[in-house]
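Exercise (ungraded).
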Amino acid sequence: MGNPLDVTFAALADPTRRAILARLATGDASVTDLAQPFEMSQAAVSKHLKVLERAGLITRGRDAQRRPSRIEGRPLAAATAWLERYRTIWEDNYERLDALLEELKTPTTKQTTAKQRGHTERSHTKR
Amino acid sequence: MTNTATLQITTPSDREIAMTRVLDAPRSLVFDAWTKPELLKRWLGVRGGWTFAVCEVDLKVGGAYRFVWRGTDGNELAMGGVYREIVRPERLVNTEKFDDPWYSGEALDTMVLLEQNGKTTCTTTIRYESLEARDGVLKSGMETGVAESYDTLDDLLASIRSTA
């Protein structure tokens, strides 16, 4: 788990931790603030916060009593950038599939194009 | 239904990556597009000059598929696997493994097609053998993102593709 992105994704794999991050995106919060809406013990919340802190996704305040948690954007942005790229590549595939399906739904178009393609592919093979 | 074309990517468990996309066609056509070589050649991974050099599908349980993509520079990317479940037109399960493995072990791809009002929701889930293997894929995607290399970009593309 040495890679920063590995650590980020592992931390994000848990739905409760994602919910905690979503809450922190609206503002800093203490363990008590977080435990309430999630109906969890403060100890359980603290465990999740430790994982998020280790992943660099949050930092915690110095205030000994409250130690408010704050969301940190950078690791999250790196993870999001990867997902965005993955999404772009597949969206590209799916857009070609959309066009193909559109063609398959119209039988006459399908036949003509299939023939044309057949010729094209054969001529490529000969080369 | 304005967001039908939006692709959703999730990590349902620490070994999986899942993708969901709505397609404006009956699922029988979608199933064919994923399983017939003459159709696969038209859309899967064919961008930036990459084309299929080999696209073989033996669509039966225990049957193999074999895909080789070739770039304009002559580089090739090869992968294949075996079909485990075939329930046309709603479900397809197959293994996937690359000739030059860059994540450990074999992945298992499950595609589920749900049809409603002539539209098909296509969900593909890739299950890796370990958290480390999946995160290796994630890491690789990140690195190629920085490198902006089309070759590795297509490696990534093919690696994350989910059914034959």
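Further reading is listed at the end of the chapter. For now, observe: Helices of chain B lie at 27-35, 37-43, 131-147, 150-160. Chain B touches chain A at residues 5, 7, 9, 11, 13-14, 19, 21, 23-25, 29-30, 32-33, 38-39, 41-47, 131-132, 135, 138-139, 141-142, 145, 153, 156-157, 160-161 (CB under 8 Å).
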